[in-house]
Amino acid sequence: MDETGFAPSLPTTYSWSRRGQRKVIQYQAPKGRRVNVVGAYSGDEFTFHIESGKLTAELFLAFITTLVPNPGTQPVVIVLDNYSIHKAKRIQPSIKALERQGLYLFFLPPYSPELNLIEPCWRYIKHERMIVRLFESQCALHQGVEDALVQYATELNTQRLPA
């Protein structure tokens, strides 16, 4: 499980232009128009929640509770990085209650995103699925992110994509 953000101007990974001509790439300043996503990847399934505002500990808690519809039936381990909302004091009592129901949080070592299996998913979505690189409005960005995530989840869940 992990979080990521999308800005109105997504990074251009490569470009070309005629010799002697400078390529100009348009840029939209974020100005509070980022779209944040919390997602979970289990090897054959990808699920997500899009948030136009700031990601909070409460949103994180709500998301992880949706990952396990029947707590207690079998143990579930969620692998996380060390983002502050994952360890916020105000959600610790709820985390303890989830552990009693068989949902456990496993924290990766600091500064080791290469160990989080969802990172390649984010890269693929941002660089391969987000064809449009510049969004003029928050609504357009939100729709573009949602379309890319739904397309990726559909393809992965029907086994057309290598994970």
Give me the CATH fold name.
Answer: Nucleotidyltransferase, domain 5
Strand content: 15-25%
Our count of helices gives: 4
Structural class: alpha+beta
Secondary-structure element string = EEEHEHEHH
DSSP, total strands: 5
Largest sheet: 3 strands, antiparallel
Coarse shape: elongated
Per CATH, the class reads: Alpha Beta
| Overall pLDDT | 85
Spans of at least 5 consecutive residues with low confidence: none
Rounded radius of gyration (Å): 18 Å
For the biggest β-sheet, the strand order reads 1-2-3
Tell me which CATH architecture applies here. 2-Layer Sandwich
- How helix-rich are the residues, as a percent range? 25-40%
Distance between the termini: 15 Å
Can you tell me about this structure?
It is a single chain. The chain is of the alpha+beta class and 163 residues long. The protein has a single domain (2-157), classed as Nucleotidyltransferase, domain 5. 31% of the residues lie in helices and 17% in strands. It contains 4 helices and 5 strands, in the order E-E-E-H-E-H-E-H-H. It has helices at residues 57-67, 92-100, 119-129, 138-157; strands at residues 2-6, 35-41, 46-51, 76-80, 103-107. It has a 3-stranded antiparallel β-sheet, with helices on both faces. Strands 4-5 form a two-stranded parallel ribbon. Strand 2 and strand 3 (46-51) form a beta hairpin. It is elongated and about 65 Å long. It starts with a strand and ends in a 6-residue tail after the last helix.
